[in-house]
Specification:
This protein is an all-alpha fold. The protein contains eight helices and no strands.
């Protein structure tokens, strides 16, 4: 049976007040808080233990913390809200037609609040230690950092689509959280020294709100991930899944109501 392509969907205003939407938003809030707490906490711990954060073992430790934390956060919410844990992933799902705009706005709010809550908790529990401020490294221009962020987010969203959204995933779906987490960790190893390898606008937003209050580089960590994830969503949905041949069925990444 042939089915039409998924399309951008604004949704209904009532969706924002629907109990199911609010339940899903709570799951996104908690999962994002869990991820940000572990990921940012690992960076703070490294700074506490070693003065030289740039050493190879430190980078590996931070990458491993990111991989495990993201895998756990996605696993805990993938069957509830779709396991986005990232405004950029929600944006990619929106452009791919798997969530409506109204639900996306609710998710974005929950994700940002979750990240801020985690940052506040870290600041309180560590005696006021400032969370790291993300900025391109010396010699790396803002646009170059944005390109790196877009490339990393593209890969992250592509992996998410392949293991969570695509109905042909089969048994690979059971490995979805691990696959997404491992790719995030690999991205930290590859690009962390250049721009921090944020990949998630909520992670850049929380330290700016709670600590530095500096916004000059925020565009890098919003424009890059959003562009990369959005492009991956469009590419996978319209070129890889090929809905002209396959009828989309309800899946764990879809929340279109």
């Amino acid at each position: 049976m042939r089915a039409g392509r998924r399309r951008f969907n604004v949704g209904r205003v009532a969706t924002a007040r629907d109990p199911a939407t609010l339940r899903d938003a709570l799951a996104e809030f908690l999962a994002t808080a869990i991820f940000v707490f572990a990921a940012e906490g690992a960076t703070l711990s490294l700074g506490k233990l070693y003065h030289d954060k740039g050493m190879v073992s430190g980078l590996v430790a931070v990458a491993l913390a990111h991989a495990l934390a993201l895998a756990a956060a996605v696993a805990s919410t993938v069957n509830i809200s779709g396991g986005h844990v990232n405004p950029a992933v929600t944006f990619g799902a929106l452009l791919g037609g798997h969530v409506c705009l109204v639900r996306s706005l609710v998710y974005w709010t929950a994700q940002l609040l979750g990240a801020v809550a985690a940052a506040l908790l870290l600041r309180l529990a560590t005696g006021g230690v400032h969370l790291p401020e993300y900025a391109p490294a010396a010699g790396v221009a803002g646009w170059q950092a944005a390109v790196l962020e877009a490339a990393m987010a593209f890969g992250l969203m592509y992996a998410y689509y392949a293991t969570v959204v695509d109905q042909r995933r089969g048994h690979v779906g059971a490995m979805a959280p691990l696959a997404v987490g491992l790719l995030a960790g690999a991205n930290v190893l590859a690009c962390g020294p250049f721009d921090g390898a944020v990949m998630n606008p909520a992670r850049a937003f929380a330290p700016a709100i709670v600590g530095s209050r500096r916004w000059a580089n925020q565009w890098v960590y919003w424009a890059g991930p959003m562009l990369g994830a959005g492009l991956a969503g469009l590419v996978y949905e319209h070129l890889v899944i090929n809905p002209a041949r396959e009828e989309p069925a309800p899946d764990r990444g879809s929340r279109s109501g």
